[in-house]
């Protein structure tokens, strides 16, 4: 049965208009973005499958267009609709970041990084720049790699931190494999970056590994 055949009070769009967006489930909100389902599946069913496929809402919101296009049931139109919505969400976060009003707590940092990196199909390395009071002054994707690795150059990281006039930084990179565990190479790189930045009085506050909706903190693990 399609959503058009549901009782009016159960249809996602009508529920949103009557109750507000906050009262809808994640799958219902995605269904509204999709506008319609596919043969044998309602838009809500498709929304649930997307959340499961990307291992949670954060992973889905971070998904790039090629990853969406590979999902059975999502054609070009639906993939483009979702990609546009997700990009708007990322841009809104970047605006808040630029205004210095976001990432004021460890939880906010995790949420931002899950959204920015959770669904990436390739490894990327991000640096969040902070002032002496540990307020965010910017964020930048410094390096992009392959499905399994990326090359990070300490000299370029130091140059970028100095150009941003940062007093402290937070690093993050993603594991497209879905495993949020640091490798020996990750730990070695973090030590090298911390030592290089210490020479120019820039403190490394944390390094996060993002895998889907998981976020591992080096600081919490005692690895800094």
Structure report:
It contains nine helices and five strands, in the order αααααααββαβαββ. It is of the alpha+beta class. A hairpin with a 5-residue loop joins β1 and β2 (136-144). α2 crosses α3 and α8 (154-163) packs across α9. The longest helix is centred in the middle third of the chain and has 23 residues, at 76-98. It starts with 11 loop residues before the first helix and ends in a 7-residue tail after the last strand. The mean pLDDT is 84.
Strand sequence of the main sheet, in spatial order?
2-1-3-4-5
Low-confidence segments, ≥5 residues, pLDDT <50? none
Class by SSE composition:
alpha+beta
Q: How far apart are the first and last residues' alpha carbons, in Å?
A: 54 Å
Number of helices: 9
Report the major sheet: 5 strands, mixed
SSE order, one letter for each helix or strand: HHHHHHHEEHEHEE
How many strands in all? 5
Write a concise keyword list for the protein shown above:
single chain; 224 residues; alpha+beta; five-stranded mixed sheet; 9 helices; 44% helix; elongated
Provide a concise account of the structure shown:
The chain has 224 residues and is of the alpha+beta class. The protein has helices at 12-19, 26-34, 43-53, 57-61, 65-69, 76-98, 106-117, 154-163, 184-198; strands at residues 124-130, 136-144, 168-174, 203-211, 214-217.
Topology:
Elements lengths: L11 H8 L6 H9 L8 H11 L3 H5 L3 H5 L6 H23 L7 H12 L6 E7 L5 E9 L9 H10 L4 E7 L9 H15 L4 E9 L2 E4 L7
Parallel strand pairs: 3-4
Antiparallel strand pairs: 1-2, 1-3, 4-5
